[in-house]
Every structure is written in structure tokens, then in C-alpha cells.
């Protein structure tokens, strides 16, 4: 596609540039009706565009005998158009017309397309961005749809009729075909973007109803192929209907999408507003002040913002803080165009009034600069007010960050500074995962850890530490650095880390924060990144108050406290003396979480809670062991197990599903009582995924810990969370379902579901024990 379709566009673009340089791009100010017989002549069907004044000596019904000396006997409308463009010189052509039996040769002035270079610019922008979108999204469904729509629109902008008849015919054909395809392909793009709101199964056919726009607009522009009457009205009606359909679809998608999809759609909104509103506002200004016509022509260039924002929405939606962009994009054109218009209306008059004291050559530039400064000040003030009104949570976030800075200054040790930083950042941003790693004698070890599968250590000279030390700014793992260590990559993937923030007092990396996703599902915006870096810099300043040896000693003390909570694979199933080889292998990972644990533990004595959790973990561990799995991690009411490692297991998927079914059926049978002595039936949520994972030892300060890390582990954790929204006890991925055979035969399919952290939709399967209803989980309990 890139070499074929885009290559064809490049050829047409070169021809277009030639026509622009020669000044041949112009409209013919009339339409003709076909000759009624081979010896008859075409007649004037109408003048176009209205009020252009290019054909003052022609009227409806006049017969066109010849153009540039070429007879038009028996000519069709296309023959007339080709003859005009072939014989036109300097935007004018001689026409022989007959009225009331009297023939006369008159000049016909074509309507030049002013500033044709902007067509070149916009067309090139759409073609380039469409190709980049296809390339960056690796031909994804939305990427392909946008590529076709953007390329069709790029063809629509590069007019190249004029000169030889073959060039004119090809140019009109390109115009007609692209106009036919633009709206159907645009609406199909809206249907599949964002992908999480795309319709399941085949695509609907109704967008192709708007293919009628192509013939209508071609008839309106050239009078071919079906004549001129009613083409303008039909074109406008189809345009309005298509815009309404596009707007309705975008609203529907916004309501159906999660935070990421909504952020992508916000970029589309920015593109439409920045691309179209300056031209609309400039048009209003030009109506008020005709001398400002050039402002409208200039504003049309902003149309290139539309494809650029669409590319960002597809491939880099978290590039900037789009919420702030929306507010600024909403007010900037209004304030800018308004003050420019005000300046043209008032500055000359004010300079003229003051000419007795100041030369207008001095006063006019000074007044213009003052007006520009006023515009900047007004823009900042209005933007601040809008941010506080539209996004009040940001003001709260800034206030909480200010409070944290004061708290950091009151800490008694360097380790306390880092632990407080992790705890409060996790609380302020509502993070799923947050871990602070401090420099110790042989590795970066955690002084604060919250979330699943927190890695016990990172090497002092590892790729993550090197990348953070080199840039000293927030870093996106897997996007902003090259990982030479698969263990670190697997650890970050298992933790779900989306951002790493360095703490650098002086010239050496002292610590860093690994932050996972927000519970809201939203991304880390530019505002969040700036806030996090400012807090990290504040922590770095506070660390300079403490001796490095004291900080390392405190780090080791806190690490000992945290050792029970970081992942440690206590693989009791291993034979004594077995050699644990580290590396990537195919595994099945099972995550299990106890539902209702928070409400159950309220009011309970610690001993009672410990007894209940012990009964639960003992039961689950026994089931996993009996089925051939290995318990990797306990975390309060949750656990992680692996099938197929450290020793191979032939039917690991079937074994994991059997274990999950047994756990889901037997945990509710445990005899547990709450604080009031009432019997409570507890339930579980289990997620299972199969795929490649890194298994082996990772390095802590004083020992090696056997773990299983990678995207498969991350997916299993995500599926366990999806049990809540599906109201199921067990959720498994398609690979596990295929390999588990009859053990998963009665699982219910859920095709094409969005799984957080996955760019493509996933087919998943769910199951619950018969006779055991899934519990209703409150928002707080789910958290």
C-alpha cells in the first residue's frame, strides 16, 4: 500500500506542483449542457460560482460554438472543459458564442484558485501523516482505516487539471474518485477508532451512502457527469448529514470508551478545533473588516493540524497533556482573532490621533506590541480560570504536592524521605503499583513497595539505572530506553510500570520510583510528569542532608522489613539440590484473590484474621501442589502460582484450570465467622494466562530469589481483576482455553474484550461453580 497507493499520490503531487508553478489552477465560471445532436452545439446551463464575474457576456441558453478556435459541434460537457483548459493562457480563453442567431467572439476569464500553495501543503500533510500512521501502528485496524481516509483526502486537495486534455481528464477523475471515497472512509475510520469501541464482526455499509458526495461535488464544480442543476444543494445536504453522522459516532465512542480511548478522542477534538476554527473565525473577521481577507487565506493552513492530531491519537496519545490543550485551543483562536481584528480597527486610529506627539511609524508598532502582550496576559489568565473550573482535581493535586514538600522537609532520615515519597505519591495519584528503590551497597533495593509482583532489586549498573542516570528525567520503560537485560524488562512488565522517576542529588543516581498505572485507568500526563519530577527533586534536596552511609544502613533496615512483602518464589516442589536455570520459557500463571476480605476483617481481632487467612492459604497451597503447580508469592489475601516451572509440566494449562476450579469450589466451603459471630462464605477471583515468561533468580542484596516475570504474569493479574466486571470466579485467556481441553469445555466465551495494558482486543473465557453465586463487590471492596 505504501509503495503503490502513496507512490501514485506522489506522481499526482508532482503534476499538481507543476500546475501550481504555472498558475494553471482555476475554475471555469460556467457550466454547459451537452449538444443535442452531432451537428449541434452545447449551451450555457448556468454561471458558477455566483457573483464571480468571470463571464459577463454570457447568459443561460447561449450556444458555445468554439473555444480557442476549436469547434464544439456535438461536444459533451467534458469536451468543453478540456477545450477551455487546453487553450487558456494567463487565465483567459476566447469563446465564440451565439445568441439570438448572432455569433460573437468574447474573452472568458477563469476564476483563479488563490494561494494554491496551501492546497499543496495540506495535501502533503495528509499524505505524510496517513503513511506515518499506517507505519507506526504496524497496520492496525484503525491505522489502516485512517491511512485510506487520509490518502483519499490528500488526493482531494491536489488539483492538477489544466493544459493537455489527458491531464485535465485525469485530474477531474482524481477529484471525483477522491471526493467519492473521502466521507465513507472517514466514517469507517470513526467506526473502528478507538478500537475498544469498534463494532464486533463485519463493518456496517451505511457509510457508503455518502459516496454520492463525489458525483454531486464533481457536477457542482465541472458540470460532469450528470449536469449542474441541484448539485450545489445536494452537496451541501450530504456534507451536513456526514458531519452530523461523524459527530454522533464520536460522541457514541466517547461514551463507550475507557480513559485511554477518551484521551485519544480528545486529540481528535483538538485536531478539528485547531484545524477548522481559525478559518471560521477569520472568515467572520474578514466579513467585518474586508481588508483582513488575507487572514482567512492564512488561517486555512491550520487544516494540517487535523491529520497531525489524528496521528498523535493513534500512535502517541500520551504525548502531551491534552486536557490543557483543549482549554487553550478553545480560547486561543477566539482571543487571537478578536484582538487582531480590534487592533486593525483601533491601532491606526489611535496612532493617527497621537501623531502630534509621536510619529505613527513609532506608535503603531508600539501599540501592536502592547496589544500582543495584553493578548498573552489575557490568555494565561483565562486559561488558569478554566483549568480550575473544568479540572478542579488538578488544583487539589497541586495542593497535595505542596503539602508533601513540607512533609519531606520534616523527615529524620534519608530512607524516611524516600518511603514517604512513595507512600504519598501512591496516595495522591491513586496508583496500582508504586515502589521506591534506593542505592544500597550492591543493588537498588526497595524502601517502599505497593502493588503486585514488586521486584526485590535492580542492578546498580543495569540498563534502567543507566538510562535514569543519563537523562535525570521521568522515563517510560520499553519506550524511552533500550533494555539489554531481559530480567529487568520482565520485572518491569510484571510490575506494570508505566513511568520511572529518578532521584538525583548531585551527580549520582541515589534512588528512583517505579510507578504503575492509575486506578482510574488514565495515563501520566505532562502535568503529572512535571509534578513527579519536582517532588523527586525535592526529595533529592532533602537527601543531601543525610550521610550516604546512614541512608544505606536505613535502606537495608527497611528492606529487611519489606522482605516478607516482596515476591519470593519459595518453590517447595523442587527436588533437593535441583539446579534452577534462568531464562525464558512457556509457563501458565494463576493469580488468585480473596473476595470480601476487607469487609470480613473489619472489627476482627488480628488472631482471628490470621487464622482465617492461614486456613485459606493452606487450602489453596495444597490444591496447587496437588495439581503440580508452584506457589511463587503470597500477598495477604492474594497469591500467585506458576505451572510449568521451575520443572516442566506437560499439561500445565489443564492443571492450572483444574486447580482454579477446585479453589473456586472449595474456598466458599471454609467455615469462617465474622466479628459478630455470623458465618461468612468467602469467594475468590482467579485469572490464568499462558505464554512466555522469564523464570529464574533475581538478585537481592543478600540472596537470590526465584521469580516468574513477564507479560504473561501481567496478563494473568489483569484477568483476575476482570472477574469482578464479568461476575465470574475464573477468567482465562484463549491460549489456556485451547490447551486445557475438556477441563475448560464449559467456560463461557467473551470474544474481543479490552484488557487494560493490551493494545489489541482479547478473546477470554469465564467460569463460576454451579450453585455458588458471584458476590456483589462494592467499589471500595474492589479497590
Structure overview:
The protein has 783 residues and is α+β, with helices and mostly antiparallel strands. Among the domains are: 26-112, Pdz3 Domain, CATH 2.30.42; 397-562, Beta-Lactamase, CATH 3.30.450.40; 583-782, Nucleotide cyclase, GGDEF domain (Alpha-Beta Plaits, 2-Layer Sandwich), CATH 3.30.70.1230. 50% of the residues lie in helices and 17% in strands. The protein has 24 helices and 23 strands. Strands 14, 15, 16, 19, 20, 21, 22 and 23 form an eight-stranded mixed beta sheet that branches. The protein is elongated and about 110 Å long.
SSE layout:
Elements (H helix, E strand, L loop, with lengths): L4 H18 L3 E2 L2 E4 L9 E5 L15 E5 L2 E2 L5 H11 L4 E8 L2 E8 L1 E2 L4 H20 L4 H17 L7 H28 L20 H10 L8 H26 L2 H30 L4 H7 L5 H11 L6 H32 L6 H31 L1 H17 L5 H16 L4 E6 L3 E8 L7 E2 L3 H9 L14 H10 L1 E7 L7 E6 L9 H18 L4 H15 L20 E13 L1 H5 L4 H21 L3 E6 L2 E6 L8 H15 L5 E2 L5 E2 L2 E17 L4 E6 L1 H16 L3 E4 H7 L7 E6 L8 E6 L11 H4 L1
Parallel strand pairs: 19-21
Antiparallel strand pairs: 1-8, 2-3, 4-5, 4-6, 6-7, 9-10, 9-13, 10-11, 12-13, 14-16, 14-19, 15-16, 17-18, 19-20, 21-23, 22-23
Amino acid at each position: 500500500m505504501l509503495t503503490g497507493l502513496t507512490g501514485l499520490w506522489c506522481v499526482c503531487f508532482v503534476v499538481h506542483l507543476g500546475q501550481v508553478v504555472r498558475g494553471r489552477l482555476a475554475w471555469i465560471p460556467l457550466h454547459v449542457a451537452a449538444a443535442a445532436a452531432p451537428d449541434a452545439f452545447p449551451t450555457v446551463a448556468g454561471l458558477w460560482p455566483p457573483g464571480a464575474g468571470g463571464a459577463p457576456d454570457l447568459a443561460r441558453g447561449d450556444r458555445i460554438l468554439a473555444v480557442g478556435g476549436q469547434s464544439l459541434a456535438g461536444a459533451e460537457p467534458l469536451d468543453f472543459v478540456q477545450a477551455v483548459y487546453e487553450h487558456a493562457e494567463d487565465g483567459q480563453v476566447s469563446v465564440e458564442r451565439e445568441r439570438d442567431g448572432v455569433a460573437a467572439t468574447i474573452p472568458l476569464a477563469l476564476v483563479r484558485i488563490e494561494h494554491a500553495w496551501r492546497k499543496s501543503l495540506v495535501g502533503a500533510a495528509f499524505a505524510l501523516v496517513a503513511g506515518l500512521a499506517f507505519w507506526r501502528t504496524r497496520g492496525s485496524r484503525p491505522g489502516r482505516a485512517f491511512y485510506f481516509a487520509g490518502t483519499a483526502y490528500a488526493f482531494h486537495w491536489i488539483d492538477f487539471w489544466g493544459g493537455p486534455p489527458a491531464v485535465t481528464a485525469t485530474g477531474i477523475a482524481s477529484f471525483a474518485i477522491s471526493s467519492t471515497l473521502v466521507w465513507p472512509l472517514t466514517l469507517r475510520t470513526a467506526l473502528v477508532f478507538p478500537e475498544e469501541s469498534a463494532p464486533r464482526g463485519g463493518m456496517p455499509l451505511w457509510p457508503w451512502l455518502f459516496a454520492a458526495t463525489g458525483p454531486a461535488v464533481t457536477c457542482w464544480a465541472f458540470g460532469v457527469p450528470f449536469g449542474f442543476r441541484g448539485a450545489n444543494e445536494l452537496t451541501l445536504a450530504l456534507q451536513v448529514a456526514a458531519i452530523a453522522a461523524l459527530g454522533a459516532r464520536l460522541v457514541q465512542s466517547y461514551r463507550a470508551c475507557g480513559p485511554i480511548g477518551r484521551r485519544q478522542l480528545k486529540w481528535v477534538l483538538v485536531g478539528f478545533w485547531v484545524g477548522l476554527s481559525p478559518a471560521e473565525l477569520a472568515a467572520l473577521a474578514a466579513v467585518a473588516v474586508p481588508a483582513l481577507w488575507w487572514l482567512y487565506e492564512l488561517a486555512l493552513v491550520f487544516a494540517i493540524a487535523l491529520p497531525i492530531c489524528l496521528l498523535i491519537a493513534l500512535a502517541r496519545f500520551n504525548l502531551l497533556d491534552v486536557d490543557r490543550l483543549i482549554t487553550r485551543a478553545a480560547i486561543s483562536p477566539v482571543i487571537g482573532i478578536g484582538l487582531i481584528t480590534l487592533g486593525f480597527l483601533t491601532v491606526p486610529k489611535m496612532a493617527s490621533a497621537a501623531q502630534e506627539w509621536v510619529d505613527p511609524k513609532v506608535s503603531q508598532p508600539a501599540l501592536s506590541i502592547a496589544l500582543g502582550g495584553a493578548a498573552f496576559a489575557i490568555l494565561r489568565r483565562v486559561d488558569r480560570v478554566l483549568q480550575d473550573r473544568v479540572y478542579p482535581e488538578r488544583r487539589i493535586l497541586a495542593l497535595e504536592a505542596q503539602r508533601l514538600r513540607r512533609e519531606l522537609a520534616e523527615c529524620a532520615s534519608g530512607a524516611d524521605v524516600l518511603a514517604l515519597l512513595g507512600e504519598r505519591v501512591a496516595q495522591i495519584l491513586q496508583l496500582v503499583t508504586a515502589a521506591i528503590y534506593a542505592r544500597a551497597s550492591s543493588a537498588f533495593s526497595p524502601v517502599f513497595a505497593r502493588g503486585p509482583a514488586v521486584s526485590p532489586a535492580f542492578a546498580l549498573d543495569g540498563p534502567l539505572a543507566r538510562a535514569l542516570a543519563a537523562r535525570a528525567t521521568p522515563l517510560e520503560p520499553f519506550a524511552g530506553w533500550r533494555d539489554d537485560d531481559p530480567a529487568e524488562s520482565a520485572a518491569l512488565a510484571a510490575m506494570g510500570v508505566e513511568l520511572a522517576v529518578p532521584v538525583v542529588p548531585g551527580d549520582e543516581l541515589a534512588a528512583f520510583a517505579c510507578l504503575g498505572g492509575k486506578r482510574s485507568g488514565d495515563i501520566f500526563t505532562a502535568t503529572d510528569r512535571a509534578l513527579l519530577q519536582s517532588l523527586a527533586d525535592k526529595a533529592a534536596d532533602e537527601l543531601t542532608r543525610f550521610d550516604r552511609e546512614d541512608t544505606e544502613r536505613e535502606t537495608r533496615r527497611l528492606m529487611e522489613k519489606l522482605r516478607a512483602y516482596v515476591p519470593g518464589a519459595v518453590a517447595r516442589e523442587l527436588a533437593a539440590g535441583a539446579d534452577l536455570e534462568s531464562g525464558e520459557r512457556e509457563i501458565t500463571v494463576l493469580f488468585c484473590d480473596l473476595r470480601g476480605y476487607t469487609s470480613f476483617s473489619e472489627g476482627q481481632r488480628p488472631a482471628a484474621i490470621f487464622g482465617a487467612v492461614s486456613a485459606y492459604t493452606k487450602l489453596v497451597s495444597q490444591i496447587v501442589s496437588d495439581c503440580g503447580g508452584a506457589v511463587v508469592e503470597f500477598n495477604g489475601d492474594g497469591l500467585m502460582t506458576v505451572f510449568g516451572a521451575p520443572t516442566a509440566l506437560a499439561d500445565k494449562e489443564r492443571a492450572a484450570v483444574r486447580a482454579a476450579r477446585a479453589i473456586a469450589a472449595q474456598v466458599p466451603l471454609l467455615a469462617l465467622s465474622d466479628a459478630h459471630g455470623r458465618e461468612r462464605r468467602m469467594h475468590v477471583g482467579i485469572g490464568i494466562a499462558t505464554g512466555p515468561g522469564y523464570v529464574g533468580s533475581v538478585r537481592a542484596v543478600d540472596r537470590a530469589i526465584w521469580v516468574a516475570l513477564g507479560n504473561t504474569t501481567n496478563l494473568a493479574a489483569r484477568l483476575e481483576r476482570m472477574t469482578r466486571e464479568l461476575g465470574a470466579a475464573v477468567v482465562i485467556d484463549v491460549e489456556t482455553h485451547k490447551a486445557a481441553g475438556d477441563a475448560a469445555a464449559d467456560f463461557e466465551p467473551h470474544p474481543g474484550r479490552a484488557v487494560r495494558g493490551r493494545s489489541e482486543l482479547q478473546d477470554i473465557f469465564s467460569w463460576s461453580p454451579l450453585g455458588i453465586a458471584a458476590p456483589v463487590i462494592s467499589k471500595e471492596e474492589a479497590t
